[in-house]
Recover the amino acids of this structure.
C-alpha cells in the first residue's frame, strides 16, 4: 500500500528534519507536500488527499488544530479522513489537551525513538482506518481538542475565556450603528475577516472574527455547529442526519438551511 | 544563612487569647508576691485578691478595647485592626481598671472569706482611690506590652507578604522572558543544526548563551549600556531568525553618541517579543522589526516597530503582562518622567509602534 503524508511546519529547519527522520524510519512513506502555514495545509490536504497529517500547533494564520478541523469538515464524503499527528515545542495547555483526548503528538525537538513509536501506531491505525468506528474515534479525539484553551493561533486581541456575555450586537452600517438584540439573531457565519449576523429580517456584517466573538456568546443558547457557523439553539426547528454523518438544520422564520459538520453532529441526538 | 522557609501555622485568635490570659495570670501572681514581700501581707490573701483583680481588669480593659475598636472600625477610620487608638484606649484602661478592681475585690472577698463592706469605694473612697491608682500602673504596662507585641506581629506579617510578592513578581518576569515555547523551539532548531551545519550551530548556541545570561542577570543588574541592550536584542532576533527564516527581517539603529547611555537591562525585550508573537508570527508572509534609539531634546526615545498584523482594538490581555512589566519598571525608576506608548504604526506598511521615552541624564 502506498501511504502518503503532508507536513505543515512553519520553521524550515524543523520541517526538513522531520522529513529526513520520517524518510529514515518509514522509507515507503511518500511526503506529498510540505507547507508553512495552516491555510496551505488545508488547501493541499484537500487537493492531494494524503493518508497522514503532521501538523505543527503554532503556525501563522491558522493553527494546526484549526487546520485539522477544516480538513475534517471539508473532507469529501465517502472516504476516510486522514490521521493527524500534532507536533509542538512546548505548550502546557496543548499537552494537557492531547493527553485528555488521547491524541498522538510529537514533541519538538523530535526524538527518533518517539517518532518510531508514532510510526508504528500510525501503521496499525491505517490498517483499520476504513472501519467506521475508527473514523468516529478520530473525530471524537478532535472534538475533545476543540474546546481546550490555548490551542488556537495566538490572536492579536485575545478575549478572556470568561468574558461578559453580549446582549446586543452593534453592527455598523455607514454612519449608523444598528443595535441588534442577541435574542433576534438566528445564526452567525464566518466570512473571511468578518462575521455575518443573520436575523429573520436582514443580515449585518461585523468586523470581528468568529474566534473572538465566540467567548462572548452564551454557550447554552448559541451552539457552534461548524467551524464557521454558530446558531441560536432555540431557532432550530428540525435537525436531520444525512448518510454522510452531517446534519441539516432548518430554522424558524428563515428559509436558509444550515449544515452541522460531523464534528458537531453529536449535539443533535433524540433525548 | 538561608531563612527557614517552612512557616509555623499562624496562631489562631483563641491561641492568642489564652496566651494573653496566661501572661495576665503571671502578672497577678507577681503583684501578689510583691505585695506580700513589700507590705507583709499573707501570700494566700494577696493571691486571693490580686489574681482575680488582674484577671477582671484584663477582662474589662480588653472588652473595652474590642468594643471601642469595633465602634471606630464601623465609623470608618481605623489604622489597625483591633486597636481603637490611644485616646480611646486610655478611657478603656481607666474605666476597665475601676470596674475590674471592684469586681475583682468582690471575688477576692469571697475567696479569702474576709467579710468586708460590699462596695469599699463608697465606704472608704480614699483607700479605694489609692488602690485604683496602684492598679492602673500594671494595667497600663500590660496594655502597652500587648499593643507593642501585636504591632510587631502585624508588621512582620506585612513584611513577609511584601517579600513574597516581590519574589512572585521576579519569578513571573523571568518566566515571561524565558518563554518555554521560544526556548524549546530554539533548542529543536539547534538540535537539527548540529548535524546539518556545525559552525552555524555553534554560533546559534553562543547567541542562546548570551541571551540566557542576560535574562538571568537582568533581575540583578540595575543598568547596562544601550550598546549592550542592542547586542542582546540582536542575539534574540538572530535566534528568532533561525526559526522564522526569511519571514523575519530586522533593522537595529543605534547612533554612536547614544551607545554608552545607561538603560535598565532588557527593557525593550518584552516589546520585541510582543512584536514577533502578536505581529509577525501570525502573519503568513512575515515582516520586519525595527529597533531604533534617538535623541529628542532632553529625552532618549527608544522605539520598536513591526510590520505585522497590527491590532484592531487597543491590546487588552495577552501581551498585557509584558507591557505592564515595562511600564512598572519605568515608573519605579523614573516616575512620571518616563512613558511607554503603543499605537498602530501610521504608514502604509501597518503593524504596531511601541515607543519608550526616558529622561536623558547627563
Amino acid at each position: 500500500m502506498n501511504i502518503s503524508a503532508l507536513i505543515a511546519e512553519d520553521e524550515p529547519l524543523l520541517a526538513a528534519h522531520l522529513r529526513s527522520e520520517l524518510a529514515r524510519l518509514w522509507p515507503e512513506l511518500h511526503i506529498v507536500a510540505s507547507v508553512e502555514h495552516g491555510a496551505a495545509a488545508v488547501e493541499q490536504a484537500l487537493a492531494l488527499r494524503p493518508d497522514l497529517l503532521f501538523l505543527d500547533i503554532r503556525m501563522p494564520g491558522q493553527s494546526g488544530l484549526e487546520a485539522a478541523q477544516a480538513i475534517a469538515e471539508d473532507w469529501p464524503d465517502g472516504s476516510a479522513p486522514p490521521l493527524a499527528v500534532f507536533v509542538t515545542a512546548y505548550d502546557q495547555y496543548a499537552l494537557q489537551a492531547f493527553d485528555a483526548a488521547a491524541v498522538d503528538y510529537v514533541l519538538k525537538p523530535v526524538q527518533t525513538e518517539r517518532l518510531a513509536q508514532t510510526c508504528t501506531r500510525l501503521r496499525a491505525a491505517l490498517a483499520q482506518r476504513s472501519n467506521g468506528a475508527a473514523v468516529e474515534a478520530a473525530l471524537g479525539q478532535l472534538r475533545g481538542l476543540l474546546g481546550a484553551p490555548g490551542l488556537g493561533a495566538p490572536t492579536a486581541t485575545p478575549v478572556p475565556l470568561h468574558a461578559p456575555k453580549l446582549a446586543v450586537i452593534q453592527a455598523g452600517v455607514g454612519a449608523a450603528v444598528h443595535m441588534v438584540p442577541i435574542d433576534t439573531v438566528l445564526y452567525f457565519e464566518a466570512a473571511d475577516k468578518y462575521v455575518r449576523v443573520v436575523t429573520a429580517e436582514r443580515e449585518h456584517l461585523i468586523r470581528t472574527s468568529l474566534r473572538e466573538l465566540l467567548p462572548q456568546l452564551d454557550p447554552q443558547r448559541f451552539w457552534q455547529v461548524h467551524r464557521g457557523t454558530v446558531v441560536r439553539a432555540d431557532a432550530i426547528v428540525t435537525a436531520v442526519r444525512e448518510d454522510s454523518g452531517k446534519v441539516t438544520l432548518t430554522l424558524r422564520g428563515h428559509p436558509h438551511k444550515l449544515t452541522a459538520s460531523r464534528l458537531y453532529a453529536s449535539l443533535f441526538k433524540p433525548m | 544563612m538561608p531563612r527557614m522557609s517552612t512557616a509555623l501555622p499562624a496562631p489562631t485568635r483563641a491561641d492568642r487569647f489564652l496566651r494573653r490570659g496566661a501572661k495576665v495570670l503571671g502578672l497577678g501572681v507577681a503583684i501578689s508576691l510583691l505585695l506580700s514581700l513589700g507590705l507583709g501581707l499573707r501570700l494566700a490573701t494577696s493571691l486571693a485578691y490580686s489574681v482575680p483583680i488582674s484577671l477582671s481588669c484584663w477582662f474589662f480593659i480588653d472588652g473595652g478595647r474590642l468594643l471601642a475598636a469595633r465602634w471606630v472600625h464601623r465609623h470608618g477610620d481605623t489604622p489597625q485592626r483591633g486597636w481603637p487608638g490611644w485616646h480611646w484606649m486610655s478611657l478603656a484602661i481607666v474605666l476597665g481598671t475601676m470596674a475590674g478592681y471592684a469586681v475583682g475585690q468582690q471575688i477576692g472577698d469571697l475567696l479569702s472569706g474576709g467579710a468586708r463592706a460590699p462596695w469599699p469605694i463608697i465606704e472608704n473612697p480614699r483607700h479605694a482611690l489609692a488602690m485604683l491608682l496602684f492598679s492602673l500602673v500594671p494595667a497600663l504596662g500590660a496594655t502597652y506590652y500587648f499593643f507593642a507585641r501585636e504591632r510587631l506581629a502585624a508588621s512582620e506579617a506585612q513584611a513577609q507578604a511584601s517579600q513574597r510578592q516581590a519574589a512572585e513578581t521576579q519569578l513571573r518576569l523571568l518566566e515571561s522572558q524565558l518563554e518555554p515555547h521560544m526556548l524549546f523551539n530554539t533548542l529543536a532548531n539547534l538540535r537539527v543544526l548540529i548535524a546539518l551545519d556545525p559552525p552555524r550551530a555553534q554560533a546559534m548556541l553562543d547567541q542562546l548563551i548570551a541571551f540566557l545570561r542576560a535574562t538571568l542577570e537582568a533581575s540583578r543588574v540595575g543598568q547596562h549600556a544601550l550598546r549592550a541592550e542592542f547586542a542582546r536584542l540582536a542575539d534574540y532576533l538572530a535566534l528568532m531568525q533561525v526559526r522564522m527564516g526569511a519571514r523575519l527581517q530586522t533593522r537595529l539603529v543605534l547612533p554612536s553618541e547614544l551607545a554608552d547611555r545607561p538603560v535598565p537591562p532588557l527593557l525593550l525585550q518584552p516589546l520585541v517579543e510582543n512584536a514577533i508573537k502578536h505581529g509577525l508570527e501570525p502573519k503568513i508572509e512575515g515582516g520586519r522589526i525595527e529597533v531604533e534609539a534617538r535623541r529628542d531634546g532632553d529625552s532618549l526615545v527608544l522605539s520598536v516597530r513591526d510590520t505585522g498584523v497590527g491590532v484592531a482594538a487597543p491590546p487588552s490581555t495577552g501581551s498585557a503582562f509584558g507591557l505592564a512589566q515595562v511600564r512598572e519598571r519605568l515608573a519605579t525608576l523614573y516616575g512620571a518622567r518616563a512613558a511607554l506608548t503603543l499605537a498602530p504604526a501610521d504608514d502604509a506598511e501597518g503593524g504596531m509602534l511601541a515607543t519608550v521615552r526616558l529622561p536623558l541624564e547627563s
Q: What stands out?
A: Confidence is low (pLDDT under 50) at residues 1-7, 313-318 of chain B. The first strand of chain B starts at residue 224 and ends at 225. Chain B has ten helices and seven strands. The interface with chain A takes residues 180-181, 183-185, 187-189, 191-193, 196, 242-245, 247, 277-279, 281-284, 286, 309-313, 315-318 of chain B (CB under 8 Å).
